[in-house]
Design brief:
The structure is a homotetramer. Chain A is an alpha/beta fold. In chain A, strand 1, helix 1 and strand 2 form a beta-alpha-beta unit. In chain A, helix 1 packs across helix 11. The radius of gyration of chain A is 20 Å and the shape is globular. Chains B and C meet through loops of B and loops of C.
Chain lengths: 346, 346, 346, 346
């Protein structure tokens, strides 16, 4: 089975990562790349300033870029990936949905909307059921699915694993890579020999998205998880890979070993891009792991790596890490696309 | 008034910082520099591989290094600063104390001993009274005073300020500079494009030392503060300046503004090396501060800088920063020395 | 004597450095700060995003920013410093010169014009005589003086010292700091764990400006120096300080010691901002110096530091270093301003 | 055909790279790993602190480490790779050669010995003929072949390509990665926000080894190439990949295009680890390449990448780059091993 896919905003940093990850994908066949009006009509090679560490796939290089408009995208495209800036996405996604396209979007707009599924396929695949609610309410033929922010996705699989012990509260400090801000988002003058303890909007995303992802869907309505989540976000001089320190307050009193087992046993999904082992867990013998440069490519950048699990007086503390531009962005949208196909929405 | 001082372990990284900070000190006159047997008899210039960013003071350069032994240090030296590795210090400090020297030590041994004052002059100067207990118990003529670890000292002044709102629990994540591990402690292969979520022994130091510093001394015995402290320590690619994210649980419910005021009003000490304003607080208009490279030299590296104060459901979160090799090491010992003089122990 | 000065383009990165360096200057009193129309009317504090590592001087913070136009600058300003982008400077400097202002400019336009003095006060102060030629030819009441590019200024004092041995050819490789590209010129994604062997236009600047600086002025015409200069320019992950490897072909055959002496003896100028010792020279005992982080602040950032001098079969090789945004930009213009005053042009 | 190989000094940084590169090698089967006496008897997993970015191959992990002594290595091992420190290698290699082993060594001792071939298979494979001379003179049954230093190997293929235009002189500045100094060779305090213009012994290696590699062997004696080579070596904050700026003086006067063609046409070798295209050349449209992080993995780290070719008044200048721990160390020795097999020495 082949699914024809398109990329909205294909020339940007995440758009390039989509193209890299879709190369040789067994199911998805890239059939359309869109960009702003200024790029329409050019070949992709001309339109994009390619910066990914593997060459542009030859066939994509010669593909014609079209405008980000439903009328410009072929009708036989079944699935669109979107990595537009959130203000652009807020304006552009609705027309595609009205026109009947299924959109798997990495853009931050509408993530918390009550009728928009925010999904990590290994964690809350059932939330896709919200698509029915969404179609009812909005009258769309298409469907809109979102994946969470890169810093949220890094920790949520570990929090899901902890929830069997009664997750009540989580305090998280992040050490985030510069690529999360886009190619030009952090200047070298800002970050060499430095760290920046603030990333605009990031803390709120972590605090709200995580409660939605861990929430429950009864077929009609989604309830947020009751845990209280509080985050402090820092930018540090790493290229890729978000590292996070988590302090979790639990109602039960598990041992560090029980927590490691719960993380290790957290099920993965049976999808092409899902890791065999969702969470790789380092034990006490390697307390200095995970580290961004050494662990960000685990499972081709789609895995979560945890370590440093220790009990505290009110629960546990530990560290977790994921590749922010693969598992945390383009790879997350592609994985949601795979789930949409698997569950028959496409 | 002039106090003749010596430095135990004067050729190492912290030893060099002592020499830099003591240059032009109004009260302390450097009269002795000690090192291992191999260096004894050499001039300081010959013995030390000088790496501080200002030149060796001329008079110190020509000073003769003596062995780290009471018999080698002139009797008229009133105060010794120590920055020896903790295992060396544990062996070497007692003979000096028996010989009657007053020692202000940055070494980590004995910091938690019941009869050893662990002091930050602006926070718990009264703990110096433990010296009487110490002399009673150990039969020393001298006196041993310790300053806390660099990561502890960064946060404790802010926690002290918060305690008026009932500090019950603190979760802290640190982003620590490589200089904290000594000149060769972190290799470039380890830290370029990377972060390391573990520093051996550091978390425990933060968790125990902070409770002693915030504890109360009734003239006979010291009670630890009741707050629960839990830390996760990370090394990042910065040269100097530890940045920390603090999540504090409070019994009261202050506004962010009230917390900023409490920090701003936290009193400094009337000592030469104390800042006029102990804690500099950035408000909401500059949420991206403090930053290590921009803020570590506040008050000549002796100040604390805080920012990003926000309320949470159970208290507040905020960030704080201090220069780890000045306020967090050599400067801390010198400041304790100034307090010892001020309070008449010398 | 007090000279009232203004800064054209005062809110940019170099403009901020001008303000920092002019604070407490014994002769120059800052009387006007200009910026683009959008900033005119604001206070300097409002108009500038201040990023220098010392606070904005209080009096400057409250100064009103005026438009970069002769009619907006008070008539009693005697000297203008300019750090505008070269295309803006090319349009804006002439009206000021026609209006009679003396302009000491760091902008790269017109540096190679035959009637514009390009000066390093310690090296070719006599080239200021070109002002007479300039006034004759252009009919200006004012005067335009340029300082060279940051990478040029780093090596030229050492080449001048070598010229006593007959400088015939120089090959230079640069290791340049990111601040040379302006605050946002180099992104962190470009430079972490990387180097970039190209800086647009930089090589040509080094090759032509150096020959003008080392050239001779006979009172009427300036002859370029006959040496052949060839450069390769690299950007590396340092914040400040350009390091350069020079291979010089000489007609004579001096020893390394003779070359070091020539550099050490290269005279400085008797101006406020000139170092006492123009070139600090490391000898064989410290072959690993100069280094950007350790040596860029020599002489408050206005000195040149050299080292690693070794003979080759056709001359010598050595390394040199200067602070690119002080000696290489704002400081260079201020120093030219001091020379203009000293020589009576103001 | 399978060749049983061993690694002398298998637990060090280069030793680990050997193991990584030999995994899945079509011809070489790892049969022995040696280390110092302290490690003998342990499994490789126990003995090595593994730091390479792929896991230890399972079979190697369980292999028993033996002492670095001919009596401890099985007789049926045909080829030994060596990456011992040069002083250790100088003592240890001769006994292995006397015992009849063929040794392909990355250690720097004996590289310039008159009867030891120093080879890059694509450049001077005929120099292997020196083995006959070596056996005659030394009475060895074995054979010793060396590969050059990492900084030498980066430029020599490009110099070989240039030699058709009459290479007379080369000035080279290097920007070398920290991995070249070994895992702990460069501390983070030395190199963050810094560069070091000196690497002990490196310049001389580049100046002498290159003339031997480009020299001619008449079957009996090797003549050094007549070109004069002068190098300045710098350490910069990159992890892997040496970048070099070359200024070459030529007797002919080729265009930049002719030089690019010569480099592009420089033949590779028909060996497993040789790239299809030995030198990848960027043209004028991408003057900012090659860059360490973007280009070091070209041809699995075994290729050379060049760019920025421009004519000068006496020849050309250009930049070149290679992966220092693959093409510049372990990969170079393995490639020499492949040549030894191909030419029938094993």
């Amino acid at each position: 089975m082949t699914v024809r896919v398109g990329i909205l905003g294909a020339t940007g940093a995440v758009g390039q990562r989509f193209i890299q990850l879709l190369d040789d994908h067994p199911t998805f066949e890239l059939a359309a790349v869109t960009a702003s009006e200024a790029s329409a009509g050019k070949t992709y090679r001309e339109a994009a300033k390619w910066r990914v560490d593997t060459p542009i796939p030859d066939d994509v290089a010669e593909m014609e870029v079209v405008e980000t408009d439903p009328s410009a995208v072929p009708d036989d495209v079944d699935l669109l990936f979107s990595s537009l800036p959130s203000d652009v996405a807020a304006a552009v996604e609705p027309p595609f949905l009205e026109a009947g396209y299924v959109v798997s979007s990495n853009s931050s707009n509408d993530r918390m909307a009550e009728d928009v599924p925010l999904t990590i396929p290994e964690i809350n695949p059932d939330h896709l059921g919200l698509i029915d609610v969404q179609r009812d309410e909005r009258g769309w033929d298409g469907a809109l699915v979102k994946n969470p922010n890169c810093s949220t996705i890094t920790m949520v699989p570990t929090l899901a694993a902890l929830d069997r012990f009664g997750l009540e509260r989580a305090h998280i400090a992040t050490l985030q890579a510069v690529s999360g801000a886009g190619y030009s988002g952090v200047t070298s003058m800002e970050i060499i020999d430095n760290a920046i303890p603030h990333i605009g909007g990031e803390e709120e995303k972590m605090e709200t998205e995580s409660r939605k992802l861990l929430g429950s869907f009864d077929g009609a309505e989604l309830s947020l998880h009751g845990a209280d989540v509080s985050a402090s976000c820092n930018r540090i001089p790493t290229l890729d890979g978000h590292l996070e320190n988590v302090f979790a307050e639990l109602s039960e009193d598990p041992s560090a070993e029980a927590v490691r087992e719960a993380m290790h046993d957290q099920p993965s999904a049976d999808l092409h891009s899902s890791p065999d082992q969702l969470i790789k867990v380092f034990d006490d013998s390697e307390p200095e792991r995970p580290q961004p440069r050494l662990d960000r490519t685990y499972a081709n950048g789609m895995g979560i790596v945890a370590g440093g699990v220790q009990t505290t007086t009110d629960g546990v503390k530990y560290n977790c890490l994921a590749h922010n531009t693969i598992r945390g962005a383009a790879g997350a949208s592609i994985l949601n696309g795979e789930l949409l196909v698997e569950d028959g929405w496409i």
